Amino acid sequence: MTLDGKSVVVTGAATGIGRGIAECVLKAGARVTIVGRREEPLRDLAERYGSAVAVVAQDVAAPGAAERIVAVATDAFGRLDAVVNNAGLARFGRLDAIDPALFEAMFAVNVRAPAELIRCALPQLRSHCGSVVNISSVGGALSMPGRAFYGATKAALNSLTRSLARELAPDVRVNAIMPGPVDTPMWNETGLDEADTQHMRVDLLASTPMGRFGDGTEIGRWVCSLLDPELSGWVTGALIPVDGGRTA
Ligand SMILES: NC(=O)c1ccc[n+]([C@@H]2O[C@H](COP(=O)([O-])OP(=O)(O)OC[C@H]3O[C@@H](n4cnc5c(N)ncnc54)[C@H](OP(=O)(O)O)[C@@H]3O)[C@@H](O)[C@H]2O)c1
pLDDT (tens digit, 9 = 90+) per residue, 198-248? Predict the structure, then answer.
């Protein structure tokens, strides 16, 4: 597998799954534009990989974000071949307890921002037989009591993936990965208290046949496979569970 010469944007690349994806894509030979709101945790990756990395400190849901990200990638590397929409917002809570405004906030980051980044990157993606990978969730396919808003945004991202795969074929391939539980900082920021978080983690492990949390690089290797036209040139509109068997 090689991504030599390709220019790839990875959003939410400072920590967790996005970090694993960025490292795998860099190791496969691509040049990578990494995006996150805080610059400092992105800098470490930039220092390790030097001129193969461009940094954009940017909230993906802010007005003008997508234009800026595409401009940085094309200025730095002269082209843009692929977009990995990984940045996500996860806020959990039952319907009668969660702040309804969080639905809009999650929709903005998990659905609208990926769509806008694809739209702005489209001329570049079209001219390079490009590819998009959206990081969705098993929550977009399973019922999610206590996490209904989050699950609904990931179901919307799955729908966007399948519709755009048809709309943009054969020029641009669009796929999604649906991770199962991966041990990342996200689990400390869901809005649940420590006891409920611990309870949910125990439940998730019990319903994951492989009996462990996943790792960001296990998602990253699948992203590389989907970006590689030699391996996946005939794959578009796929929603791939990489989930320790959680959806089996
Ligand atoms: N962890 C899991 O079990 C799991 C399972 C299924 C799917 N997912 C999905 O995987 C993706 C990554 O999640 P993760 O678990 O790796 O979470 P994470 O460790 O919290 O990482 C999220 C990253 O995205 C960045 N980010 C968040 N909001 C952003 C925004 N508005 N604009 C730009 N960057 C933003 C964060 O950096 P800054 O704070 O500096 O912006 C952070 O580096 C998400 O889409 C999530 O829904 C996760």
Answer: 999 999 999 999 999 999 999 999 999 999 999 999 999 999 999 999 999
68 lines ligand 1 (CB under 6 A): no
How do beta strands 239-242 and 31-36 pair? Answer: unpaired
Residue 1 is predicted with a pLDDT of 75
Q: What is the mean pLDDT of residues 112-124?
A: 98
Q: What is the pLDDT of the chain when averaged over all its residues?
A: 97
For ligand 1, the distance from its centroid to the CA atom of residue 135, given in whole angstroms, is: 9
Q: Which atom of ligand 1 is nearest to the CA of 15?
A: 43
Q: pLDDT tens-digit profile of 68-105?
A: 999 999 999 999 999 999 999 999 999 999 999 999 99
Q: Known catalytic residue: 49?
A: no
Going by C-beta distance under 8 Å and a sequence separation of 6 or more, which residues neighbour residue 178?
136, 137, 138, 140, 141, 154, 158, 239, 240, 241, 242, 243, 247
Domain at 7-240, CATH homologous superfamily = NAD(P)-binding Rossmann-like Domain (3.40.50.720)
Q: Rounded to whole angstroms, what are the CA distances from 129 to 49, 209, 229?
A: 26, 37, 9
